[in-house]
Amino acid sequence: xxxxxxxxxxxxxxxxxxxxxxxxxxxxxxxxxxxxxxxxxxxxxxxxxxxxxxxxxxxxxxxxxxxxxxxxxxxxxxxxxxxxxxxxxxxxxxxxxxxxxxxxxxxxxxxxxxxxxxxxxxxxxxxxxxxxxxxxxxxxxxxxxxxxxxxxxxxxxxxxxxxxxxxxxxxxxxxxxxxxxxxxxxxxxxxxxxxxxxxxxxxxxxxxxxxxxxxxxxxxxxxxxxxxxxxxxxxxxx
Length: 238
Ligand code: FPP
Prior knowledge:
By secondary structure, the chain is α/β, with parallel strands linked by helices. It contains seven helices and six strands.
């Protein structure tokens, strides 16, 4: 089987899953967060090298305040316990997105976790937090402009695709080979727009908290059976 090197997931359906069980949305988020840990382990065991999950988008701030608060508390707890998980699973953790808008204690936990896990060479787990792809591209272009002003990049240089990739939050990480979205929606929702130029998409009706290791294997099998016409950088491979 052709195992994708990088799998990106849009976690969707925590709320609908909880509703189907007569439970509050926050219960869906709690179980969704637990499932993230399980799928990380399965991904590592399958030989996937990079897993990127959409945990909180720049648009998610518009949800009711108590729901945002509950999600932030879940993330807070997850980041605290994640050191032990990273050590146990030889997992490197990175956070992508605009961290500056997150609470200071969350920013500190992220910095500690990234530093603590930086040399683990099993799965690299990327969490997209306060992430929006258009915002990421905008920040990258502004960073390039400011490096041009300060002379780090010679002024008047042409902006290249490589330059943009190198200034994204995902710099140094290969583009996703496979993108999975759970819960029946079939859109990108401002996720990794630049990075998904050649990515295969897989959609499933299963809600995120019910998405199992077997579901991940099914997605990888479908991916593996597809004839990829283009390589990651656009070169024709078949
Ligand atoms: C998706 O379901 C929910 C989110 C994208 C926000 C919360 C995410 C988590 C709790 C996962 C936590 C991640 C880590 C890394 C611990 P939804 O609420 O959009 O579901 P719905 O479409 O059914 O309402």
